[in-house]
Design goal:
Structural class: alpha+beta
Order of helices and strands: HEEHEEHEHEEHEEHEEHHH
Shape: globular
Number of domains: 2
Distance between the termini: 54 Å
Helix content: 25-40%
CATH superfamily of the largest domain: Sulfite Reductase Hemoprotein, domain 1
Strand content: 15-25%
CATH topology of the largest domain: Sulfite Reductase Hemoprotein, domain 1
Radius of gyration: 23 Å
CATH architecture of the largest domain: 2-Layer Sandwich
Length: 287
């Protein structure tokens, strides 16, 4: 008979009890959403030998192998370690960090997987008030839903206009999915409030009328999904990729200072407001 204390101890290692008594699903972490072909081969062999020959992905781009018998758990852990794989990703701590494919995607505005990997090494598994999720997306398409995470980072490209250089060709309007750029009476119009800062217009402009002014990362705090979903609040500034690790460090320090046990960042912001949180954050960034 497996005790509840044993089940809780296994859960803390990323080994989750199934509804089928005596069986467990083990969670294996990716690095920025990637596994090598050799790692996949190891996972497939473990699933075939100890599970039921299949594995599945989690929403945070980890792998879970179900149907591991309690008696086989130690053997599976040893096989994973031998294959250079890491299991875990549960508890009141920083969960597996997620990145979209911005590194290789034609829409990516920064190297999402590189930055995610750097931050994984610095932050993954850190104990906090509650589970904390961090996600990196490369552009405003927001494929990985950054604003539904505790900390979400979105690539941005701010553009500037030289209206004297514009020949009103309309090329930019064809790539502007937000319909921020439109033509009226053969003249280009820009609705800045509709602009999502994807930078596509600057990429297709051939006259220099639209150019990229600055490229950076917008940061959202306090998003969450589940039974009570909440979209994150955006911090005021735009950040360079090299600033992000220190920024996340200071965000977590501020969260630990202002939060209570069991509170996610969303609950802290609901209690004190994003402006107060950002004021405390800016003080730490200025130290």
């Amino acid at each position: 008979m497996i005790t509840q204390n044993e089940i809780a101890a296994l859960k803390a290692q990323g080994i989750l009890a199934q509804q089928q008594e005596g069986y467990f699903s083990i969670r294996i972490l990716s690095r920025a959403g990637n596994f090598t072909s050799a790692e996949f081969q190891t996972l497939a062999e473990i699933a075939k030998k100890y599970g039921r020959g299949y594995l599945g992905e989690t929403t945070r781009l980890a792998i879970e192998i179900p149907w591991i018998a309690y008696s086989d758990i130690e053997a599976v852990k040893s096989a994973l370690t031998a294959g250079g794989l890491v299991y875990g990703g549960t508890g009141k701590k920083i969960r597996p960090l997620v990145a979209c494919k911005g590194t290789v995607c034609q829409h990516g505005l920064y190297d999402t997987q590189k930055l995610c990997s750097v931050c994984h090494d610095q932050f993954f598994g850190r104990d906090l008030h509650a589970k904390t999720k961090i996600t990196f997306v490369g552009c405003p398409n927001n494929c990985a839903k950054a604003n539904t995470n505790d900390i979400g980072l979105v690539g941005q490209s701010y553009v500037q206009f030289d209206w004297n250089a514009c020949i009103n060709c309309g090329k930019c309007t064809k790539v502007c999915r937000a319909q921020s750029l439109t033509m009226l009476n053969q003249k280009l119009l820009w609705n800045e409030r509709k602009c999502v800062n994807c930078g596509k217009c600057a990429q297709v402009c051939t006259t220099g009328a639209i150019t990229e002014e600055v490229r950076g990362i917008a940061v959202y705090l306090g998003g969450r999904m589940g039974r009570g979903y909440r979209f994150g609040d955006r911090l005021t500034d735009l950040y360079a990729a090299e600033e992000v690790p220190n920024l996340i460090e200071k965000i977590l320090e501020t969260y630990l200072e202002l939060g209570k046990d069991g509170e996610r960042i969303a609950a802290v912001l609901d209690r004190i407001g994003i402006n107060a949180f950002e004021d405390f954050l800016q003080e730490r960034l200025g130290e």
